[in-house]
Specification:
heterodimer; A: 892 residues; alpha+beta; Rossmann fold; Neuraminidase; Leucine-rich Repeat Variant; 3 domains; five-stranded parallel beta sheet; five-stranded antiparallel beta sheet; 24 helices; 31 strands; 31% helix; B: 641 residues; SH3 type barrels; Immunoglobulin-like; 4 domains; 27 helices; 12% strand
Chain lengths: 892, 641
């Protein structure tokens, strides 16, 4: 260890010395167009604009144009993009690049010493190729920017960075050598950020590898000096930062436009009104955004020179919008004929309520509507906080923000003070959002999908209004807003799962390396370890449903085809570009993702009607006993209702059968898109309430897309009492632990969510006491122990003894769940092979399946031998699939 | 054509380009090749049969062959069984598996093959092809062994497995003439169908001819459609009683359900055996059929086949009668000429055809070869310049965008490259100027063998009445001699090579384009193995030498397998591996390249060899036995110590 540190020190020292003798410096010329290309370090500079401000402050008379073309995860020659996004050259030409700053090395560094020669070869090729081009301003000048150092945050759940920095030094050295050989400037930001991190009291990164807001503020002058040499450090001009924010906001919405697949991709041809299709209408908007970005460049230059500036930006020079004609209505409306269209004559909620056909034991109640709360227009997702309050995300900008309009999608809190099931007050928790296709509460704040990022908003002063918003997760694709990140769900072990749909090509960076996933899947993120990885790499269309049962088995609903899957066989590891075969989009992409193109992964019950907007599993004493465990599905086109399925175990998996729906509605505008069991045990339903439902069937700017309606309904049993909502928010840990014994999955879910954000040591101490005190003869003892294990996983506290205890449980459901936990801890449980051998020989096929699934996280011939052990017993189809896929991964 | 197909074609284009490299390069010595083999896959042979079968099933052929195996240890039995029944395996490895299994299981080879057929899955077309290959292997077994197993075949002829039944009947026919089979097979229509389907295999012609009466009887007595269709097909494998068969098939043509099968068999009957009256009747029926076929069905393969038959029929009528029919046909359909490529032989099956000047015509080009081919019609006398400039046009083609089709006034009409097992239709008005218009595949170097002539005439029916074979468009005055096999030559080769003249052999070696790919006596191409030590390699065994020439895919020297490399950034490169070590692979990818290219191992995602040799078979089918022996004598006389 000592030896390694000494070597590291030497190398760092060497780096510093050599950098000073690097003769090539970056000089800027008047009118230069600077493009940033590379990974997340660069990409996030457009959300933290202090560096760009210093640039204009240093060169006030240069009238510099800066365009950020970076994407998280970009490498010199591997930059995955959605269809027709355009080659790098196309975008560099569009921006007329004269100076290109390349930010590479962090993601590449995970390949270690073996990857250095390829990295150097790629960089050399990239530099040489770039300099052979002309993007409209002659031969572009190139500079290489090093990665930053990895911060030792002191957080025991995060890497301390020693190994990272050792690797990063090698890659900085490689960058420097290429820069010397190619005679291009090299900006070393590794050394100064390493010093900075060591000297700073404050944490400057989100997770060790990505700067936080304070980190970017410090980084501004570091990058400035590394590029242009030491200078008297100027204070950052905050006014200039805010103008640059506005410029980059418009650039962001142009370059990273959501719905790319419907703008320049295949579905650009859709939405024609006879004259204009999606491409025509939306590319015009992108031109307008280009003009607005340029207008803001001018203001930046004026401000940098110290000239006065009008308060309001003059955008009168921009092109007009193209407004397509409606294709809604008329005798031949194909969407009306196909039963997709509702009615443009919207009914009052009271009238709509009369059109429900409800299961005889239940009744419907209006919780909230736009009539009372206009902010509720276009509701899309719901959740309940730990105070038991309803939260709803709304998307009036659907399908996409229009330039020059106010960007104002929201998350609302709907308070029901007297507990009668009717909302009394509507609070705006956060506004100014763009397409919050999903959200989830937890970790002291709210995670909000805002493709291509996930926002984290916090209310630090308790006034129910967010006063902090950051972008902790990024690199997701923005090819399609209705395939955007949705169905956030905390797993029982503290992972946050969220899903994206087809056409998307995402690259996410983490302290553990880069993960790519194309064409849909489920991501998982552990807030303690900051693991961000592909959990279910499978070609869904748009998976909008995800729910865990009492024993941690999960089920996924794919919206467009209406397919519901049991998840375990689909969630072993398989890496880009491969995918597990059999999703609804598999055939189209099988030539690159592998597998028989004709193969279809079985749904766990036969689909009768599509689609599937959201799903829930009945777990509520308010519902009659015979409905417990039923799988509920919202259908917003075929039936417009809540479909109901009984589920039972069969073989390794589960089998469902459809039974009488909970409700249907004869109002064609009833669009149930999300559903959840509330703290009082009733069922809450989000009604998007729109005459139009298909996105593909109309132009993105179809004038009849409704922007004013939205309703929340509550389904209640006629005779069974509602439950007393559990007290969770702010409760002592001991009381929260007791809630883990409650039958309702959602109550335990919220209790876990509260426990997850409490202090780890305090939780662990209380948990040990609670767990020791559990009655061993309680029929739920094994489940209580499982909750104990899950809480360890949530706090990333490895407990090998408890894990082994549960692997030997007399309940196969507990053994299966423990095997799943083992798959997450596999690198930290030394005897994992021995444990998995037992799982794979288990008497129950689900445990065997979880065992084989877990082997996909290992490597080598020993792992193959381990997995093959499952052939000692007969395999059902799910097990065969899991074995085949684990083998594919091990052979990958 | 979608982009994937296009890519497949482009990569095989590169592949075939390699076949034509003829640069003599001194510095590549293949026998000193350094090939580091990838690690063989680890198979847990000591585990349960289920585990072993599962693991072997996951391996592709290349990796399966890398699995360690020895004919002395029974644990390797599953490996040999997998090799024997794998689709796409070369004969060399199948035979190795058969003999090894025979030793390990103490059974004769006939038993081994028989059992392999009964255990075979026959769901995919690849598996069916394997079954067909194994049936051929079975009937090639010693007659004595087949006879010994008669009772087993009799039992399995009523198996529920279709290919097991066919194999049993084929073996019975091959061993004892099959006369008892028809009695045996009468039990069920499925059995009878299998028996009739056995006729497509290489059973002695005498046996097939002797059984024709029984085939006809089966046809006449059965009411089962499958039996009738199989019987019609089987009739096509007989060579006797052509007139009678012809007349019978014309009758069955009138039955809609039997029409397509009847057309196919009618096409096999030599023109001279078709009685005039019957022919006239058939012509009438075919014209009527064309008129009654709805327009949307006139592009089906069955219709194309029928129109080929109509064309033949019309050519045998008097010119005036033919004209009348032709007029009626012209009113409903463009005249179609179907041209097929011949698998692994690099030639079209139609050497020439005639068209009426100025009239519309449709060529249906079916590619049955593994390589892509096109068809380009040139102006008279322009075959060579067009074909040679095709190389320069390259895979992206000229202005037309068609691969290897040059921008030239000499090109009249051209198809795109047609992928393996695909077809393309080329419709155009024939030139108004009568003459001999060559057609050729412009894929580099294919023109040596792959060409034909479209004869444009003023009066088609007159020409068809008395066809005149056009001049060979590349000045080759050779004509087909024989489809030579090793068996045809092996008995005589030792005597045959004596007293030959080196200079004659040397000329023939050049003429037959051997030197394009092989080095001998210090000159020649590098794409095929250097032949200057080939005699020593086979220890003077001339049979093996013959096999190298006539069964090029029997075994492919590892160093000369085409390697297809997929790089990590998605590029596909194909070529011959010059050398390989832990860091890099050196590949010859392009005949015009003076230097091979180097690819870093780190950049390689997959490297996979092709099981089929790049060398066409039938290269010497226009050469006499004497000439073949001259070539062999020349090779032998040019050996280096």
């Amino acid at each position: 260890m000592l030896h390694r540190s000494a070597k590291l020190f030497l190398t760092v020292a060497l780096t510093i010395i050599c950098i000073s003798c690097n003769a090539v410096e970056l000089s800027l010329e008047k009118g230069d167009h600077i493009c940033l290309v590379g990974n997340a370090l660069a990409e996030r500079l457009q959300h933290h604009n202090e560096w760009e401000s210093l640039l204009h402050q240093r060169f006030p008379n240069h009238n510099l144009v800066v365009r950020n073309l970076a994407f998280p995860g970009d490498e010199p020659f591997e930059r995955i993009r959605s269809e027709n996004f355009g080659e790098p050259d196309q975008h560099l030409s569009h921006s007329q690049a004269s100076v290109i700053l390349y930010f590479f090395g962090y993601n590449e560094s995970f390949a270690g010493s073996e990857g250095v020669s390829k990295f150097k070869a790629d960089l050399t090729r990239l530099v040489n190729e770039t300099r052979s081009k002309d993007y409209g301003k002659g031969t572009p000048r190139v500079a290489l920017v090093s990665p930053i150092a990895f911060e030792n945050t002191g957080d025991p759940s995060l890497p301390n960075g020693d190994q990272h920095n050792e690797r990063l030094v090698m890659y900085c050295e490689a960058l420097k050598e290429v820069a010397m050989e190619c005679e291009v400037p090299f900006a070393d930001v590794f050394t100064p950020t390493k010093h900075l991190f060591e000297a700073s009291k404050d944490r400057l990164t989100l997770n060790g590898c990505h700067l936080n807001a304070a980190g970017y503020r410090e980084f501004a002058s570091i990058l400035d000096q590394a590029l242009f040499g030491t200078n008297d450090v100027q204070p950052i001009n905050e006014r200039l930062v805010s103008e640059i924010n506005d410029k980059n906001f418009h650039w962001w919405h142009r370059y990273r436009a959501v719905n790319g697949y419907s703008i320049y991709g295949t579905r650009g041809k859709a939405g024609s009104d006879g004259t204009y299709n999606n491409t025509d209408v939306m590319e015009r908007e992108r031109e307008i955004l280009d003009q607005m970005t340029s207008n803001r460049d001018q203001r930046i230059w004026q401000l940098a020179k110290g000239n006065p500036l009008s308060e309001i930006v003059d955008d009168s020079n921009t092109l007009p919008f193209i407004q397509p004609k409606t294709n809604v209505g008329g005798p031949d409306d194909p969407n009306a004929k196909r039963g997709k269209l509702g009615s443009l004559d919207y009914l009052p909620a009271e009238e709509q309520a009369k059109l429900f056909k409800i299961h005889p034991d239940f009744e419907i109640q209006l919780v909230a509507s736009e009539e009372q709360f206009p902010e509720l227009a276009n509701p899309v997702a719901l959740n309940f906080d730990n105070k038991g309050r309803l939260w709803v995300a709304t998307m009036q900008s659907y399908p996409q923000w229009k330039p020059k309009s106010k960007l104002d999608d929201k998350i609302l809190i709907l308070e029901d003070g007297n507990g009668d099931g009717t909302a009394d007050e509507c609070k705006v928790f956060i506004d100014g959002l763009h397409q919050p296709t999903g959200f989830e509460i937890g970790n002291g704040g709210v995670y909000i999908a805002e493709q291509p990022d996930i926002i984290f908003a916090q209310d630090t002063d308790g006034d129910d209004v967010a006063d902090s918003r950051t972008r902790p997760l990024f690199g997701f694709d923005s090819a399609d807003s209705h395939h955007g990140i949705a169905a956030f769900e905390w797993g029982p072990g503290g992972n946050l799962y969220f899903q994206e749909g087809t056409f998307k090509f995402s690259q996410v960076e983490s302290p553990y390396g880069l993960t790519r996933m194309s064409e849909a899947g489920i991501w998982s993120h552990h807030p303690k370890t900051h693991q961000l990885s592909a959990f279910c790499n499978f070609a869904f269309a748009n998976p909008w449903g995800h729910v865990f049962d009492r024993w941690g088995q999960n089920f996924i609903g794919d919206a467009s085809p209406g397919h519901s899957y049991w998840a375990a066989p689909l969630t072993g590891r398989i890496d880009y570009p491969l995918k597990h075969p059999g999703g609804s989009q598999h055939r189209r992409i099988a030539s690159t993702t592998g597998g028989d193109p004709a193969y279809k992964f079985p749904t766990f019950y036969p689909k009768r009607t599509r689609p599937l907007g959201g799903c829930a599993m009945v777990s509520s004493r308010h519902f009659p006993p015979e409905m417990q465990g039923n799988f509920l599905v919202t259908n917003c086109i075929g039936d417009r209702g809540i479909l109901n399925h009984e589920v039972r175990e069969e073989g390794s998996g589960f089998v469902g059968v459809e039974v009488e729906p909970l409700l249907m509605c004869d109002d064609g505008n009833f669009r149930p898109v999300d559903v959840q069991i509330a703290p009082d045990g009733t069922l809450y339903i989000v009604d998007w309430h729109n005459a139009l439902i298909g996105h593909l069937q109309h132009n993105l700017r179809e004038p009849n897309r409704d922007r004013s309606h939205g309703r929340i309904w509550r389904l209640k049993h006629k005779t069974r009492p509602v439950l007393e909502p559990a007290k969770i928010d702010g409760q002592p840990i001991e009381k929260l632990l007791e809630l883990l014994k409650v039958p309702e999955d959602r109550t335990r879910y919220r209790a876990r969510r509260e426990l997850a954000q409490r202090d780890t040591n305090e939780v662990m101490q209380a948990l040990a006491v609670w767990s020791d005190g559990l009655a061993k003869d309680d029929e739920n003892y094994e489940h209580h122990l499982l909750e104990t294990l899950w809480l360890h996983q949530t706090h990333h506290q490895i407990n090998a003894n408890l894990l082994e205890r549960l692997l030997q449980s007399n309940d196969h459901r507990a053994r299966a769940a423990a095997t799943r936990v083992l798959s997450f801890w596999i690198n930290e449980i030394p005897n994992h092979v021995e444990l998995l051998e037992k799982s794979i020989q288990d008497e129950h096929p689900r445990v065997r399946l979880e065992g084989v699934r877990a082997v996909s996280f290992l490597q080598g011939d020993d792992a193959i031998e381990l997995a093959l052990g499952v052939l000692d017993q007969d395999l059902d189809d799910y097990l065969q699939y899991t074995l085949d896929e684990t083998m594919r991964r091990l052979e990958q | 054509m979608n982009s994937k197909q296009k890519n497949a074609i482009l990569s095989s284009i590169i592949l075939t380009l390699m076949a034509s490299v003829s640069v003599a390069q001194e510095h590549h010595h293949h026998n000193e090749l350094q090939i580091t083999k990838p690690e063989p896959p680890k198979i847990f042979l000591d585990k349960s049969p289920r585990v072993v079968a599962y693991q072997l099933k996951r391996l592709d052929n290349q990796r399966l062959l890398m699995v360690e195996r020895e004919a002395t240890d029974p644990k390797y039995i599953p490996v040999y069984q997998a090799i024997l029944t794998r689709p796409g395996m070369t004969a060399q490895f199948r035979l190795e598996a058969i003999s090894s299994l025979s030793k390990l299981l103490s059974k004769n080879t006939t038993q081994i093959v028989t059992e392999s057929i009964s255990n075979l899955e026959t769901k995919t077309s690849e598996q069916i092809k394997t079954a067909e290959q194994l049936i051929e292997l079975l009937i090639g077994q010693p007659k004595s062994e087949l006879m010994e197993m008669r009772s087993i075949f009799e039992a399995s002829s009523s198996s529920s497995n279709e290919y097991e039944r066919v194999a049993a009947f084929a073996a019975l026919c091959a061993s004892e003439g099959g006369s008892s089979c028809f009695a045996e097979a009468k039990k069920s229509p499925a059995q009878l169908t299998s028996l009739l389907n056995a006729f497509q295999y290489s059973i002695d012609q005498d046996i097939k001819d002797a059984l024709l009466e029984q085939i006809i009887a089966a046809f006449n007595h059965s009411t089962d459609l499958n039996v009738q269709i199989a019987a019609i097909k089987a009739m096509g494998y007989a060579q006797t009683q052509s007139q009678r068969r012809y007349e019978m098939l014309i009758q069955s043509f009138e039955n809609n359900a039997l029409r397509d099968a009847s057309v196919n068999t009618l096409l096999t009957i030599p023109k001279q055996d078709r009685p005039e009256a019957a022919n006239q009747k058939l012509a009438e029926l075919l014209v009527k059929y064309a008129e009654e076929t709805p327009a949307e069905e006139r592009t089906s393969n069955a219709f194309t086949n029928a129109m080929q038959l109509a064309d033949q029929s019309l050519s045998m009528l008097g010119s005036s009668k033919a004209k009348d029919f032709r007029k009626r046909l012209d009113a409903v359909t463009v005249r179609m000429i179907r041209i097929r490529t011949v698998e692994e032989e690099m030639r079209y099956d139609v050497p020439f055809f005639a068209v009426q000047a100025g009239k519309p015509i449709q060529i249906v080009l079916e590619n049955h070869d593994l390589m892509p081919h096109n068809l380009v019609i040139t102006r008279p006398g322009k075959l060579k310049p067009v074909a040679q400039s095709g190389l320069n046009a390259g895979p992206t083609g000229g202005a037309s965008g068609l691969a290897y089709v040059p921008d030239s006034d000499d090109v009249l009409y051209a198809t795109d490259m047609v992928a393996s097992d695909a077809q393309v239709r080329l419709t155009f008005d024939a030139p108004s100027e009568p003459g001999e218009y060559p057609y050729v595949c412009t894929f580099p170097q294919h023109w040596y063998r792959m060409y034909g002539v479209m004869v444009v005439v003023e009066d088609l029916d007159q020409w068809l009445n008395d066809p005149q074979e056009p001049a060979n468009p590349i000045g080759n005055n050779r004509s087909f001699v024989n489809s030579w096999t090793v068996q045809d030559l092996e008995a005589e080769v030792d005597a045959g090579v004596r007293g030959r003249t080196t200079s004659i052999g040397a000329n023939l070696f050049n003429e037959a384009s051997c030197r394009g790919c092989h080095r001998l006596a210090g000159e020649g191409g590098v794409i095929g193995p250097d032949l200057s030590k080939v005699v020593a390699k086979w220890k003077g065994n001339r049979k093996e030498l013959l096999r190298e020439i006539f069964e090029p895919s029997y075994r492919v020297d590892e160093a000369y397998q085409m390697q297809k490399i997929l790089t990590v950034d998605g590029q596909t490169l194909t070529g011959i591996r010059i050398s390989e070590d832990n860091d890099k692979v050196v590949l010859m990818t392009n005949p015009e390249a003076t230097e091979p290219i180097t690819i870093l191992q780190d950049d390689i995602e997959v490297m996979a060899p092709s099981a089929i040799s790049m060398m066409p078979k039938a290269l010497l089918d226009q050469y006499t036995k004497d000439e073949i022996f001259e070539i062999i004598a020349f090779i032998e006389s040019s050996q280096q110590p």
